[in-house]
Amino acid sequence: MKGTVIIDCFPERAERYRDQYAIVAIDVIRATTTATTAISLGRRVFPAQTVDDAVQIASTLQRPLLAGELGGNMPVGFDVNNSPAQIAQRNDLYRPIVLVSSSGTQLLLKAVGAEAVYIACFRNVSAVVRHLSGRHRRIAVLGAGTRGQFRREDQMACAWIAEQLVASGYFPETEETSSYITRWSGRSPDEARYGRSADYLRRSGQVQDLEFVLSHIDDLDTVPSLIDGELIPVMGRIAATQRAI
After folding, report:
1. What does R_g of the chain's alpha carbons equal in angstroms?
2. Which of 211, 36, 193, 215 is closest to 127 using CA atoms?
3. How far apart are CA 28 and CA 60, in angstroms?
4. What is the pTM of this model?
């Protein structure tokens, strides 16, 4: 047995795992998909907890893009929403992104202090597992959660990562972890269409992000890790550099 894996949710739960675990932060719709997409294209990405923090970080960078949302709304003065589809369409790859979101970046930054902090989404499930397996003995796979709910798409990504880790020799720490794995094993990513996050994107006229998430499945080898305030590709670095040229 290589170690153990546990599934949990919500930013405030991250402190439970900082001392003894590597943490994988997941916010499929949309922060970790936005960040992973940007990094795969060769961009630098800096997560922030608040608008003020984002503005302060941006002041230290050359021609940054302020990206994100709080409460579903893009803050005044920001350049782009928390949108993987919009980020993928932009050509100004030399501009670093400062990203803030209601849940995803909150979880990510509350995980600081863990053995290692990674992000995952539907795009890099297998790559994350390849990097984690045998590298860390205890792994916490955490969904960001929204409005007190462990959203469907985050359950799915958490479960698929945990399932592959168990297949490689890890042991689920809790019955709840095993339950999530069983629930989502073999299920189609398209089932995320029936969740509340997908419903919000449709109601708010942002269906392009839903379609982006569901049409990009396990297509990246990029594994971003939070290191000194920046998301750095610890896998997929060469591919990301080549895409940026």
Report:
1. 16
2. 36
3. 28
4. 0.95
4: tokens are 């153990």
pLDDT of residue 238: 43
The total number of residues shown for the chain amounts to 245
The pLDDT tens digits for 138-170 are 999 999 998 899 999 999 999 999 999 999 999
Amino acid at 230: E
How far does CA 179 lie from the centroid of its chain? 22
β-strand pairing of 230-235 with 223-227:
antiparallel
SS (H, E, C) 115-139: CEEEEECHHHHHHHHHHHCCCCCEE
User: Which one-letter DSSP state was computed for residue 74?
Assistant: P
Strand bridging mode 45-48 / 3-9: unpaired
**Helix 196-203 crosses helix 152-167 at what angle (to 10 degrees)?**
140
- Dihedral-angle region of residue 72 (phi above 0 means left; psi in -120 to 50 means alpha; beta otherwise): left
